[in-house]
Amino acid sequence: MTYLVAALFGLAIAFTVALVVHLLPARPRGVARQLAELERLSSADQDVERLQRQRKSQDLKSVLEYIGGRFGKDLRRGAQLRELMVHAGYREPGAVAIYWGARVALLIGLGLGLFLLVKALGGDAPKALIAGAWGAALGWVGPAVHVGGRARRRQKEIQRTLPDALDLLIVCVEAGLALNQALVRVAEEIRHVSLLTSQELSNVNFEIRAGVPREEALRNLGERTGVVDVRSLTTMLIQTDRFGTSIAQALRVHSDTLRTKRRQRAEEAAAKTTIKLVFPLACCIFPALFVVILGPALVTIYRTLLGLQ
Question: Does 75 map to a domain?
């Protein structure tokens, strides 16, 4: 009897739900078709806007590359500048020419713009020339500062996440995966921690699949990143692969070394904190303390001296 009551109760609920769904007003086919058309048009508009932005970006790159090729020939630093651009993530063939084109364009644009702005605001010629000089200097130095800062940030991120990636690589190798498959797996797992490290490891796998020898692909990884720890890791992997020693044991020793270096860098940064605090303490905090502590005493002394006169 209990099972029969439960079955009848379930059938009643199912019948009620089906009746409610049947009685609900269905969306007309014309409305559904119009909504689908609007969604398609919105996606098409987004694609058109994206293509327009890409086209404008490509045109701007072409103009900057032309300017850099015309005016930056005598200013190029050769392999050193190309290496810096690669470390910053700009790996296009014309990245160096675009870099010099941006410097020249910003030098002329900011210098002339600030000069005309000061003249339009009623400033005299010397002020306009000084503003134009400052704008030109900012336009010339700005791209160099941006590229250098981007390269340092990328290197710090790779250096910060390298021990974690190395631990994952040890686990994968000890689980029985070959080095190539282990790199693929680590690139997939480390994506949640650092997308940059995942991309660099994926580039190694792409090069190996394209037919590049593994030693050369690992060496290219160290050259692309410019991180000393990555270069030492790739050198260790190349030597381990060449001499046939245990990769897992070598990776474990190298991981311990990297963690020791990271702890030493943290201790060094903590030790530098006291030196860096001298300037704000001497210029900002100590004067305020002197005013609060010695101010009332100086006021009292001043009033006492006035009363003695």
Answer: no
Tell me how far apart the alpha carbons of residues 238 and 254 are, in angstroms, rounded to a whole number.
Answer: 13
Q: How far apart, in whole angstroms, are the C-alpha atoms of residue 307 and residue 295?
A: 19
Stretch 210-223: mean pLDDT, rounded?
86
Q: Which of 42-46, 55-59, 236-240 has the highest mean pLDDT?
A: 236-240
133 lies in some domain:
no
Average pLDDT, the chain: 78
Kindly report which listed range (16-20, 136-140, 172-176) carries the lowest average pLDDT score.
16-20
Q: Give the count of domains, the chain.
A: 1
Please tell me the distance from the alpha carbon of residue 96 to that of residue 77, in angstroms, as a whole number: 10
Amino acid at 296: P
For 232, the domain range is 155-266
3-state SS track over 180-244: HHHHHHHHHHHHHCCHHHHHHHHHHHHHHHCCCCHHHHHHHHHHHHCCHHHHHHHHHHHHHHHHC
The set of residues, in sequence order, having a beta carbon less than 8 Å from that of 208 and lying 6+ positions away, is 180, 214, 217
- Whether 4 maps to a domain, the answer reads no
- pLDDT of amino acid 35: 60
Query: What is the C-alpha to C-alpha distance for residues 240 and 247, in angstroms, rounded to an integer?
Result: 6
- Note the pTM of the prediction, 2 decimals: 0.68
Residue 86, domain member (yes or no): no
Nearest to 168 by CA among 97, 252, 105, 49: 252
Counting Cβ atoms within 10 Å, is residue 156 exposed (0-12), middle (13-18) or buried (19+)?
Answer: exposed
